[in-house]
Structures
1.
Amino acid sequence: MKMDNYYYHFLEQMNKELAFVARELEHSIFASPRTMLTHARVFVETILLLVMKEEELPSKISLTLIERIDTLNDNGYITIEVRDALHSVRMLGNQAAHDTRKFRYSEALQSWEAVYVIVRWYVETYGPIEFIFPEYQDPAAKGQEFYDISEIEIRLGALEQLLNASVGKHDKNLESDEKRKSVAEETSDPLPPGFTTIRKLVYKKMELEIPYFLRDAFLLPQRFERSEMFLIRLGAEQQARIMSELPNNLEGLSTHVKRYKAKNEEILFEELEVFIEEEKQRREIMLDRPGELFFFFKEEYLVVTEELAKLALNEDIFSGFPSLLKQLRKDQMVTVGQLPKELVILAKYDNVGIGTIKSLFEQMKQIQTTSTTAAVN
């Protein structure tokens, strides 16, 4: 699933890193005005660094943004309009970096307009002669889910590292070409909200990337068929109840509980990989179809229509598991719509296994299919 196009995509032909940072700024305007304002300052400072490098002006890394503005202004490289735009971005960015007050969308939009003036000047002065710069465009307040503020910071931070490296700033976090390539791959595509890698898990020579939306995900033991008891025991030791409790390296995890060995660590790692992929698929579905209610069973899902949700959980409609139906009614779950979104949770009931849950899921699917066919005909 790809995010929509972004305004400054045309910058990619001049400087991809610059374009990608601009993309994240655009996405952050309505998600976090403070973040947008803070990083817009870094963005324009990099543009000035590129200009000073192009013009062969003395440019120490330690120069502040206001010093760069003054240098270019004093030497006649920028117009009054560009100078004022630079100061606008600078001052708003400084406030956002230090002031604890709430920042408004209007302030982020003000900075966005100033960024337009600066980028237009930069491209028209140092870009391809034949290029016609497009008209200003307000960013749309998209109806889709926004990036979380912390995720925006992660993405912008990684992109700014690449941007700094592209203009000659040393960054010890990007010393190797392999590391630089890895960061570039992670941030070049505008991933859907939540999909930015937040951390990695390793086991021996294997590696798993944990997306942001799963950073504190509950590791429901029933989702891990071969590691269910291992996770339950680890959970009792406060070791693996949620994703963030897992250590970076899973080797040695079994030492926290008795009668479990390295083989259990390996199996858990394999099942975590499946779990992460299933969760990614589920999130893509939910992002693509906001406002819908779903039931999930392993890698499958079912859209819950109003008609299906109203169905009674009784033996007249569902067959083969009367004990489960009785226990559900005892817990005041009397209609399909009251079932948990994650159906494997039902395995907590007495004498209920994965086979029973699969049967329930398949019967609901069949009812849904029959109902849809009847409606069409």
2.
Amino acid sequence: MKKDWIWLIALSLCIVFVIPWSVLRWQKEKVTPEDVQIRVLMPNKEVVKLPLEEYLVGVVSAEMPAEFELEALKAQAVASRTYAAKRIGQSSLPDVGYDVDTTVLSQAWLSDTQMRKNWGLLNYWRYRTKIQKAVLGTRGMVLVFNGEYIEALYHSSSGRKPTERSEEVWSSSRPYLQNVNSGEENLQRYIKKTVYTTQDLYKKLGLRESPRSLTATDFQVLSKTSVGRAKTVRVLGRVYPATQIRTMLGLSSTDIEYAIQPERLTITAYGNGHAVGMSQWGANDLAKKSIKAEEILAYYYPGTKLNTLDNI
């Protein structure tokens, strides 16, 4: 009887740990095309060459919740692959020794160690296998416009407004980065209210003069985009692009409402991210309606075409 229990425990451990690990290792070995590699600047400042498809597993793991629908993860894999491919060996820019880093300045990226820490050991194999399936299911697929890789920008949530045209957030216009409805079912998913004291405000703006009480004109939205997000803002007599104020004040988006009192400024931000390109939460909500990855990509990047790396 005791031996039966020992065998049962051993079999259970094999099912829970050994078999998934073996499958994961086999899949990981498959996701290594040797022809396309990317140079990644790691947090320790070491530059590591990785097969592009293997790198993408870490990117999708970092950039999109693993719980999302498979078709949304596939759309993310294509967008991230396109973003990375455009930056591999850019001949128009000085070679700084690497193509991307692991932060949001390029694309966020997780190592296997970070995945295990974030997801826990029991979820690690399940989530990683799912994300590998999304990467393998779109292997080599990229988005192009007029035969060139697009700027495959994406963000977390457009909130209560449509996505933005690229020229209303940055200076450059891209025909495929236009206003489209977010695709999100919950338009109130991200609402963040932040209160700044006068001292906070002066410090975050890098102002050295002594803080004073605020007046009604000390924070004003001077212009808005075509869908209603802040475009330029005047704060304490200085005019800033709303994107810069978003960074300086740590706002989640430029879709803002505000209230001024003599000793504090309260800003409520709706949505999360720059709102250009694909809304990740929108992509997931579309995937829940059985919309395929290629349709999701065509929706958020109108006029683009799917192609493969070897055909560019």
3.
Amino acid sequence: MDALSASFAAVQVLAGDIEEAICTHAVYYSIWRRYSALPERFDWNTKLPNVKFYPLRPELVESTYLLYQATQNPFYLHVGSDILHSLEKYTKTSCGYATLHDITTKTKEDRMESFFLSETCKYLYLLFDTDNVVNRYSAQFVFTTEGHVIQLDPALRHRPWDKDTCHDCFLDNRRAIARINESFVSHSCPVYEQERRYALPLSRQRLGEIEALVGLKNTPATRSGGGG
């Protein structure tokens, strides 16, 4: 599997399939815990990376952010903190953050992709800034595939030459925004049970199975307390 697939958990969240998103995310986070980074490609059969570089991709952070927004489980704040710690420890340089040439040796390349700033850092920032306007009024915003935030302005959906155009939408944008919020009520994610918000998102047995699947269990990094 490749690192880009780590974004699939985010897609599952947006589709309302929270339980599957939790499982998908756990697989990629287990790999991160093993290497303190996510290899570009990981081989299920050997349980080892076969493309070892990590170009500071945002997909795991994006899924972590959306899962926290959907569940409000502090576990995902811990995940974000773990990722941030690894980035600071292994990729930070005197003038930016560097691609890891080899996640096993943590050797660096003289390169920082633009998506690190536009996506990886942005999703980490929004994960921890819980009172950010984007989080408080999430139904009013949409993210592009490159992490750019676009406000959904309903006034722009109306054409002045249409007879049934609501002209006051142009004059009172707040009422238009309220209509958008109402339209999202029936399409929101299912309510996440209150009692699960302060527990591990998966059972310890299930987490153990996932850890074994990616070779995290019984590795030297695990026995010494983690790879990051």
